Amino acid sequence: MADEPAGGNESSDAKAAWGVASVQEHRLSATAAAVAAAALQVVLPDKVIVGLGPRWLLPALEVALAGVLLLAVPGRITRESAKLRVASLGLIALINVANVVSLVELIDALIQGTSSGGRALVYASVPIWLTNVIVFGLWYWELDRGGPAARLRFDHRQPDFLFPQMAARGAAPGWTPTFLDYLYTSFTNATAFSPTDTMPLSATAKLLMMLQSLASLLTVALVVSRAVNILK
Q: Are 34 and 88 in contact (CB under 8 A)?
């Protein structure tokens, strides 16, 4: 549409296509997801948390940090200081690192283990996979267009993700993504091992989705093969 004059409906359509200023979101949804990820870490068997220290240490730190972020912004997100931004990204990184360590230990245990205790390891893959979905949903929510606070501005940077509502001009006027949309994107990427209806646009988004798909594929492939051996 570069040859058409700007202004009027075309200007509105262009904004709808690339995302308008987002509505104010409450941090409660993201906090609940972070707490759920911490709870999933608690139920993991000892074999896959050897490198994480005491069972309650990291989950307690994650819940405490999530609580601090929620107390700092108890209402809807309107702005975000640099310190809160760093703390929010740090929380997601902490959950992500813990889950990667658990995944590596799970893979090692599945490859080297015997049938004894194999079922427990197969069951352990479920919270690890679910945490993978949650943590990447948090990454997508926090990084798209600079985060939930930056998305409130009309001059936000170009989107990192192209949602269907943004591509279908006029189908959902004024629509903007919320945390649930990013969580859904994470879930579909983890199950299909590739983007489905939401496309990554930036290099960061593509890299994140690639890493998530790899982690999900490793988890599912090894667990399925291990489960077959156990059944035999």
A: no
Select from 88, 203, 225 the least CA-distant residue to 149: 88
The letter for the amino acid at 90 is: G
3-state DSSP: the chain helix, strand, coil percent, rounded to 5? 70, 5, 30
R_g (Cα) of the chain, nearest Å: 20
pLDDT in tens, 87-135: 999 999 999 999 999 999 888 887 776 555 667 778 888 999 999 999 9
pTM, 2 dp: 0.85
Give pLDDT, residue 4. 40
Q: Which residues pair with 76 in a beta bridge?
A: 26
Query: Which helix (H) or strand (E) covers residue 30, if one does?
Result: helix 28-42
CB 184 within 8 A of CB 208: no
Confirm if 61 and 94 have CB atoms less than 8 A apart: yes
Q: Is 61 left (phi over 0), alpha (psi -120 to 50) or beta?
A: alpha
* Alpha carbon distance 54, 58 (integer Å): 8
Which structure tokens are listed for 218? 């490793």
- Give the start-end residues of each E strand in the chain: 161-162, 199-200
CA pair distance 198, 33, nearest whole angstrom: 21
Report the SS3 class of residue 103.
helix
Q: What is the 8-class DSSP label of residue 51? A: G
pLDDT digits (tens, 9 = 90+) for 29-61: 999 999 999 999 999 988 888 888 888 999 999
